[in-house]
C-alpha cells in the first residue's frame, strides 16, 4: 500500500513539475515573440513557481520594462542581481531601469562597476551614456560615447547614442545625421530606424514650409513602415504611424496602424482613443463603440468627448436607450 501511495504521489509530483516547466516555456516564448501583454498576465504564477530562477527573474523584469513599469522592473532585476551580480547583460538592464525609475545614484553605481569589470565591452559604455542622458548629465554621456567609439569606430551603436544625445537636447537635425549614419553601417538597426522616424517627425513639426514639412512627415512614416517590417511586434512603431496619420486626417491609414497597436498593447489607452476617433470620423460606429466605451472608463482627460461620440454612435446604430442614458448623465453633470 505504501509503495502504491508513493507511486501515485510521484506521478502527481512529476505532473506538477512538467506543468510548471510548460508554463515557464510558454512565458519565455511569449517574451521571445514580444507579446508582453500576454506575458504580463502570467507573471504572478511564474514568480511564485520560480522565485529564485535567474532566467525567469530577468525575463519578468524585461516584461515590466517593456511595459514602462519601471519600479516593478527594478524589483525583479534587483532580485536577479542578488543572485548573480556579475552578469553584464543584467547589469546593463538593471542600471537602465534604475535610471528610468529616477534612482540615478544606484544606476551610476551599477553601470560604473559593470564597466570596471569589463572595460573593453563597448555596450557598457553605450548603456552608461543612456543612463547619463536620462540623468541629464550630458557632458558625462558624451564622454562615454567617445570611449565606445574609440573601441570600435565602425560600430553603429555610438552613432545611435550620439543621436540620442542630440535628440535629448532637441537638436533634431544632428540627431538625424547620426541615426542615418548608424543605419548606413547597419540597415537592420531597429533602434536607429525608431529614433530616425521620431527625429523626422519633430523636424516636421518645427518646419514652417508646408511642402518641406510634408516631406519630413513622409520620411518619418517611411521609417516607421521600415521598422514595422523589421519588427512586426514593435507596438510603438504602429502607435507612432497611427498618430501621424491621425493628425494628418488620414483616418483609414490611422485606423489600420492603431488597430495593430491596440492588439499588441490592449492597455494602451491613448492609442485606443486615437483608434476610436479614427473609426468615429470614418463613420464606422459599430467598431468604434467598444473602444469608446473602454476609453471613457480609462481616460479622464477625454471622457467627455468620448461619451459624446459614444452617444452619437449609439444613435447611429439605433441603440437609442443607451444614447438617452448618456445624454441624461451629461445633462445631470452640467455638461
What would your notes on this structure say?
The protein starts with a helix and ends with a helix. The chain is built from 19 helices and no strands. With 335 residues, it is mostly helical. Helix 4 packs antiparallel against helix 5, helix 7 packs antiparallel against helix 8 and helix 14 crosses helix 16.
Quickly describe the structure:
This protein has 335 residues and is mainly α. It is 81% helix and 0% strand. Helix 14 runs antiparallel to helix 15.
Low-confidence stretches: 11-18
Radius of gyration: 24 Å
Number of strands: 0
Helix segment tally: 19
Structural class: mainly alpha
Helix content: over 70%
Distance between the termini: 75 Å
% residues in beta strands? under 5%
Order of helices and strands: HHHHHHHHHHHHHHHHHHH
Offer a few descriptive terms.
335 residues, mainly alpha, 19 helices
Secondary-structure map:
Layout: H1 2-32, H2 36-40, H3 43-49, H4 54-66, H5 70-83, H6 88-100, H7 104-117, H8 122-134, H9 138-151, H10 156-168, H11 172-185, H12 190-206, H13 210-230, H14 235-247, H15 251-264, H16 269-281, H17 285-298, H18 303-316, H19 320-332
Helix pairs in contact: 4-5, 5-6, 6-7, 6-8, 7-8, 8-9, 8-10, 9-10, 10-11, 10-12, 11-12, 12-13, 13-14, 14-15, 14-16, 15-16, 16-17, 17-18, 18-19
Amino acid at each position: 500500500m505504501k509503495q502504491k501511495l508513493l507511486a501515485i504521489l510521484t506521478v502527481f509530483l512529476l505532473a506538477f513539475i512538467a506543468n510548471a516547466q510548460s508554463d515557464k516555456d510558454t512565458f519565455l516564448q511569449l517574451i521571445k515573440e514580444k507579446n508582453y501583454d500576454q506575458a504580463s498576465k502570467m507573471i504572478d504564477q511564474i514568480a511564485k513557481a520560480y522565485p529564485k530562477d535567474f532566467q525567469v527573474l530577468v525575463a519578468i523584469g524585461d516584461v515590466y520594462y517593456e511595459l514602462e513599469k519601471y519600479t516593478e522592473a527594478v524589483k525583479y532585476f534587483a532580485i536577479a542581481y542578488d543572485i548573480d551580480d556579475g552578469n553584464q547583460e543584467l547589469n546593463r538592464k538593471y542600471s537602465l531601469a534604475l535610471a528610468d525609475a529616477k534612482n540615478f545614484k544606484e544606476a551610476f553605481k551599477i553601470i560604473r562597476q559593470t564597466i570596471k569589470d569589463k572595460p573593453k565591452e563597448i555596450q557598457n559604455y553605450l548603456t552608461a551614456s543612456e543612463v547619463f542622458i536620462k540623468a541629464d548629465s550630458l557632458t558625462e554621456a558624451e564622454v562615454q560615447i567617445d570611449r565606445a567609439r574609440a573601441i570600435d569606430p565602425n560600430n553603429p551603436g555610438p552613432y545611435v547614442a550620439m543621436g540620442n544625445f542630440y535628440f535629448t537636447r532637441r537638436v533634431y537635425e544632428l540627431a538625424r545625421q547620426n541615426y542615418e549614419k548608424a543605419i548606413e553601417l547597419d540597415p537592420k538597426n531597429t533602434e536607429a530606424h525608431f529614433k530616425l522616424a521620431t527625429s523626422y517627425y519633430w523636424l516636421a513639426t518645427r518646419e514652417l514650409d508646408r511642402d518641406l514639412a510634408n516631406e519630413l512627415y513622409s520620411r518619418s512614416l517611411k521609417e516607421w513602415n521600415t521598422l514595422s517590417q523589421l519588427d512586426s511586434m514593435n507596438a510603438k512603431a504602429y502607435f507612432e504611424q497611427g498618430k501621424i496619420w491621425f493628425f494628418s486626417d488620414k483616418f483609414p491609414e490611422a485606423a489600420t496602424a492603431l488597430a495593430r497597436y491596440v492588439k499588441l498593447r490592449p492597455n494602451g489607452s491613448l492609442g485606443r482613443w486615437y483608434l476610436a476617433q479614427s473609426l468615429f470620423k470614418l463613420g464606422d460606429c459599430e467598431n468604434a463603440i467598444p473602444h469608446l466605451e473602454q476609453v471613457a472608463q480609462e481616460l479622464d482627460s477625454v471622457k467627455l468627448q468620448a461619451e459624446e461620440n459614444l452617444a452619437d454612435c449609439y444613435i447611429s446604430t439605433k441603440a437609442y436607450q443607451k444614447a438617452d442614458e448618456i445624454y441624461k448623465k451629461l445633462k445631470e453633470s452640467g455638461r
